[in-house]
């Protein structure tokens, strides 16, 4: 979803201060495919990239998105309308985000969780891990874990249909509304997942449900863990000059110890 994001830059960090909503520190591995590198970056800020004419459009799912089109039975081809729901058994009830803590040198990989404990009691634990190694903050990884979990659990309604040139401006990543009597929807919000040209002046739209309440920047299940590090936590920094060093040798007993 695009739009004015000037008020969407900073937020409460959960520890009495503010921070940037999304930050990313990542090393590009040129041995990997370009698409793989792009995907590893997009997941760090809930982003997406889509072809828009001769260019690519970068989008971020956010709660300030506005609908760019209202689809109704007046502009939807009646015979083409299909809707359905995701498979409940495939939906995880625990989402694990793997991130990097640069202050922990020997084992920098850390994990943040978001869980649906009630669903776990019913179906058992079904966990999915998402690597977000470009994320270096616990708070951001916790927020992403919650978003990823409920995007899978709540946004499991899909529909597709054909529409004429009235929707020529609608692109993947846009938020739209759908009103249709068959499923009983009134201005239900969706995000456009795919647009395919069917014939001249007509396109097929594939949509996934969009719920802006998921994007409330709430933290996951186990936030907030704090760490106390010394002011100079770089183990590779040169040591200060040693002064007033005193070495004392004591006597040893018959057993070889003091």
Model description:
With 258 residues, the protein is α+β, with helices and mostly antiparallel strands. It has helices at 34-42, 117-123, 138-154, and strands spanning 10-12, 18-20, 47-52, 55-60, 70-71, 82-85, 94-100, 109-115, 127-131, 157-164, 175-180, 185-199, 202-209. It has three helices and 13 strands; from the N terminus they run ββαββββββαβαββββ. A hairpin with a 2-residue loop joins strand 3 (47-52) and strand 4 (55-60). The longest helix has 17 residues, at 138-154. The radius of gyration is 26 Å and the shape is elongated.
Mean pLDDT: 85
Order of helices and strands: EEHEEEEEEHEHEEEE
Biggest sheet, open or closed, and with what strands and sense? 6 strands, mixed
Report the strand count.
13
- Unreliable runs: 225-230
Q: Which strand order spans the largest sheet, edge to edge or round the barrel?
A: 5-11-12-13-10-6
Approximate shape: elongated
Q: Which structural class fits the helix and strand makeup?
A: alpha+beta
Number of helices: 3
The percentage of residues in β strands lies in 25-35%
| Termini Cα gap | 72 Å
Helix content estimate: 10-25%
């Amino acid at each position: 979803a695009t739009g004015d994001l000037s008020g969407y830059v900073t937020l409460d960090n959960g520890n009495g201060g503010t921070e940037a909503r999304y930050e990313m520190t990542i090393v590009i591995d040129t041995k990997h495919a370009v698409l793989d590198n792009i995907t590893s970056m997009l997941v760090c800020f809930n982003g997406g990239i889509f072809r828009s004419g001769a260019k690519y459009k970068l989008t971020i799912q956010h709660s300030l998105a506005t609908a760019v089109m209202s689809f109704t039975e007046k502009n939807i081809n009646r015979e083409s309308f299909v809707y359905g729901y995701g498979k409940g058994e495939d939906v995880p009830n625990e989402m694990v985000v793997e991130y990097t803590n640069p202050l922990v040198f020997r084992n920098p990989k850390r994990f943040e969780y978001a869980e649906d404990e009630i669903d776990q009691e019913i179906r058992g634990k079904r966990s999915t891990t998402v690597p977000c190694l470009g994320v270096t903050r616990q708070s951001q990884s916790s927020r992403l874990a919650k978003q990823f979990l409920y995007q899978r659990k709540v946004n499991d309604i899909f529909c597709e249909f054909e529409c004429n040139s009235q929707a020529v401006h609608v692109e993947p990543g846009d938020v739209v509304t759908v009103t249709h009597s068959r499923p009983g929807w009134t201005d239900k919000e969706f995000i456009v997942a795919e647009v395919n040209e069917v014939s001249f002046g007509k396109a097929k739209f594939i949509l996934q449900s969009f719920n802006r309440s998921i994007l409330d920047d709430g933290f996951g299940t186990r936030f907030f863990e704090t760490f106390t590090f010394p002011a100079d936590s770089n183990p590779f920094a040169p040591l200060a000059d040693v002064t007033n060093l005193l070495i004392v040798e004591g006597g040893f007993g018959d057993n070889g110890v003091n």
